[in-house]
Amino acid sequence: MEATTMPRSKWFLPGFSAALGLAFLAALWAGGKPRDGLFSLGVMTVVGLLILLGGRSETIRGLRGDGRDERFARLDLVATAIAGNVLIGIVIGACVWEWAHGRDGTPFVQLGAVAGVAYILALGFLRWRS
Amino acid sequence: MKNAIRELRAARSLSQAELAKALQVSRQTINAIETERYTPSLPLALALARYFDSTVEEVFDGGNDDA
User: Fold this and answer.
1) What ipTM was estimated for this complex?
2) Are B12 and B22 in contact (CB under 8 A)?
3) Can you say whether the dihedral through the CA atoms of A124, A126, A129, B1 is positive or negative?
4) Are A28 and A41 in contact, with CB atoms under 8 Å apart?
5) Is A5 touching B (CB cutoff 8 A)?
6) pLDDT for B6-49, tens place per residue?
7) Residue A89 CB contacts under 8 Å (≥ 6 apart), including other chains
8) How far apart are CA A123 and CA A104, in angstroms?
9) DSSP conformational letter for A80
10) Is A61–B43 a contact, with Cβ atoms under 8 angstroms apart?
11) Which residues lie closer than 8 Å to B8 by C-beta, 6 or more apart?
């Protein structure tokens, strides 16, 4: 029943950050803005390096993965839920704003629908698993 | 949740960092448990009790709900 630690490689988040930077570069390059793409890659690489080489702060170590335990995992979950709720609130507000100005609410309606469906599916799956 | 971790740890002259290392959690997690800011999972509560050769009931005050 050893479930008190849940470390992950300290390279995970820096690697994810760099991969995101490469995806931004590819997208912006394809869209005819290679300079913006290189700038995005640079920013994401610096963020990744800061996380990788960051100090001994619990937050940095937790984000990086090598200082991650069950308490940090719980904090991470709650922080993710808060960020999700903020995002949903903004999407709903933006929908209302768009409708009030005579527009069809795109793309906020679709984003809200995806979030709602994803939530219901996740809830059903987790309920089935538990 | 109220608990006796600080007393048990002090009785063995252990630092928070040493206990944290033994249980593979962060020092901040031990501190959060001692100061009742974090209620550990069942596996961690059992690991703490086993570490101190005690029962969970002896380490944690079950009569006091949510910390």
Assistant:
1) 0.86
2) no
3) negative
4) no
5) yes
6) 999 999 999 999 999 999 999 999 999 999 999 999 999 999 99
7) none
8) 29
9) H
10) no
11) B52, B54, B59
Q: How far apart are CA A119 and CA A103, in angstroms?
A: 26
pLDDT tens figures, A115-126? 999 999 999 999
Q: Kindly report the pTM of this predicted structure.
A: 0.81
State which amino acid sits at residue A66.
D
Residue B25 DSSP label? S
Contact (CB<8Å) B28/A71:
yes
For chain A positions 67-86, those within 8 Å of chain B (CB to CB) are 67, 69-72
Q: Is the distance from CB of A24 to CB of A41 less than 8 angstroms?
A: yes
Task: Copy the structure tokens of residue A114.
Answer: 């995806």
Q: Find the residue in B nearest to A67 (Cα).
A: B26
Are residues A100 and B57 in contact, defined by beta-carbon separation less than 8 angstroms? Answer: no
Q: How far does CA A66 lie from the centroid of its chain? A: 19
Read off the amino acid at residue A84: G
